[in-house]
Model the fold of this input.
Amino acid sequence: METKEEIWELRLYVAGKTAKSVTALSNLKRYCEEHLKDKYVIEVIDLLVQPQLAEGDQILAIPTLVKKVPEPIRKIIGDLSNEEKVLVGLNIRPAKKTE
Amino acid sequence: MSLKSSTKADFPSGSLPKSPTGITGLDEITAGGLPSGRPTLICGGAGCGKTLFSIEFIAHGALLYGEPGVFMSFEEKAEELAMNVISLGYDLDQLQRDKLIKMDYVRIDRSEIEETGEYDLDGLFIRLGYAIDSIGAKRVVLDTVENLFSGLLDQSILRAELRRLFDWLKEKKVTAIITGEKGEGMLTRNGLEEYISDCVILLDHRIANQISTRLLRIVKYRGTVHGTNEYPFLIDGTGISVLPITSLTLAHDVTTDRVSSGIPSMDKMLEGKGFFRGSSILVSGTAGTGKTSIAASFIHEACNQKKRAIYFAFEESPLQIIRNMRSIGIDLQQHVDNGLLEFQASRPSLTGLEMHLLSIHKMVEMFDPQVVTFDPITNLITVGSVSEVKSMLMRLIDFLQSRQITVMFTALSLNTIINEQTDEGVSSLVDAWVLVREIESNGERNRGLYIMKSRGMKHSNQVREFVITDEGLSLVDVYLGPEGVLTGSARESQQLLEKTGVVLHQNAVNRKDREIERKRLVLESKIASLKEEFESVQDELNKAYVEEELRKEVIEKNREQMTRNRHNEQ
Done:
């Protein structure tokens, strides 16, 4: 598959260690371990520390997960509690099916 | 309050602190501007000027009032916005570089966003907070925050977050404008008015008789008095200007200075001095009675006195007026060249009445004239009803009087009954009313001029014949005789007749004089002959008397001689 070589570059925007942020991060890690083992990079950006970064990725909601690579760019907002939606959003499901 | 107290020192303590918008007219009707440190909702339909309103608020804040501002746009990119307002003279890019404003474009693309589970809008808060803190902003605009509703699915979260946002803006003590699209049956599509209760301003764009008028209304404004009417506003080359519909009081300064009408004989009818400065004059009459000529000569005279003047023409083009007035010896071109006279010609149907009023306001404020004329106001009736025209003219007169500008209106009256009102019903508003009436007799028409009223002076009550000659305008006394008022050639023939009469009379008098002379001569000769007669009689009498005396003397002598003789003999 053409997606085989790709690395998922994921950015999770949070604002401090809120319950929603913690849930989102743990959910994300779980999905990635399950479906994208060794093919992902997660970068957590705390906007309370770096507020200037919010503008670049058009962040409104917290928490927001941004998938920059592979294209297309997708954003998933919320605590990522719905696994199916997250996987569709990250374009992961089809990749898993082929394996 | 503490934050704003330094800039709001001129407001009485305890009153609501306000942030001026710098938009002409709006700060007057809101008594100072928008509520400081609180959000204000600006709502209205598409294309009604919400975004421009907001940008002016931010730009004026940065440029005029030293209050930096953040403009967060949910609709248009910062570059597009900057491009849109550069024609109004706001260089948003430069302001951004000077750290006076900050533009932030928030893009929400449904196709990119997936929602799973709980979230909040802290990202927006942080972004906005960062923008505010980075330039120390005191003003914030969110244009149009409602776009979030189409970008995010979870409405309950969104509503809760918006409520939190507005509270947070208050905590931040920034003066905020939130714009909202007009919705069905409510002020905004998503009911933003539920969250913002301090100040709501509604913008409207109404079309009547194919003429559009922009209107602004303050729906509510807590804690302060404000105008409640619909105020027309104008968007032109300098941005938004709002016009208060009525001036609140009738408290103009007055003066006893006089302004010449430009026609010496008309000044003579007005106590020999002319109209009061700052008064309003109406010249009405039927078609072709020389109303424009009166107005032009008024303007001409003012310009000769080095006064500034504006000629608002609603019927003819400036060049047409200049050409036509040259034929009666009034050269307006020289005043235009000297910069004393400004022509403003437009068709009444070009814009609505309110727009006319606004553009007149702007023009007057820019040029600062001492004399203006409107020729003719009758045509305004084509763009509004009588009451609308009257209300507009009333406000116009108020405005001009507050600036001590003398104004002359001309109006076409459609009837020939002199006591009727002009169509615009302005005759009760004006201070002086000059009526030119056609008098038709002996197969010709002549102009009769009356001064129907002139407040505050003893004006002539007489009809004058109004004559337009190559050298200008003048008034001639009409002939009032047993045959009634005579004008034109009838007056001239009457004058000739009178001249003949005088000659005849002189002749008769002369003849009588001669007769008397003759009689005198006859009498005198008679007296002379009588005198001669008397002298001869007197001579006769004298002669007898002398003879008597002589005889007496001789007798006496003789007797004495005789006596002596006798004595000698003895």
The longest strand of chain B covers residues 211-221.
